[in-house]
Amino acid sequence: MGQQAKIGIVTVSDRASAGVYEDISGQAIRDTLRDYLVSDWQAEYRLVPDEQPQIEQTLKDLVSEGCCLIVTTGGTGPAKRDVTPEATEAVCDRIMPGFGELMRQESLKYVPTAILSRQTAGLLGSCLIINLPGKPKAIRQCLDAVFPAVPYCIDLMEGPYLECNEDVIKPFRPKS
């Protein structure tokens, strides 16, 4: 139905980037997006340490490579090295606070520690960047909550038309 969508998947983790353990969070994002999307899309995957300049550069690079959506995982807690939201806010033209608000609200149904999460989202050029928590189960819970808004947001930024498997996730788009 048009151009292939490029979607950035960025795992922010000192230990995974050092090879201490496998990045299962990035794979959880990829698997979830495979469940959601029926339109043609390509994943642009990156694994970076919890270093704000490197996260910022990775986000900017993915936008310049044509990503309409970037989903990050990790680095959203209160620990000193958790700087993903700061990196996101530093590069974005505009912040989309509703995404973080809804993700925290959803996560609080499962864990009381969700109040410690600092997930956010923002717009860089014509790309939507969403910060997710690091745990695979939480990734799916948060994406299930916010993804219905993603295709329309990308439509409004004149990005590729994302078509979803409506048996899995139902995007909301106003009736034209």
From TrEMBL:
Pathway note: Cofactor biosynthesis; molybdopterin biosynthesis
E.C. numbers: 2.7.7.75
Keyword presence, Transcription: no
Keywords on record: Molybdenum cofactor biosynthesis, Nucleotidyltransferase, Transferase
Enzyme class, first EC level, given as a word: transferase
A GO MF label: molybdopterin adenylyltransferase activity
Function statement: Catalyzes the adenylation of molybdopterin as part of the biosynthesis of the molybdenum-cofactor.
Protein name (record): Molybdopterin adenylyltransferase
Organism of derivation: Alkalimonas mucilaginosa
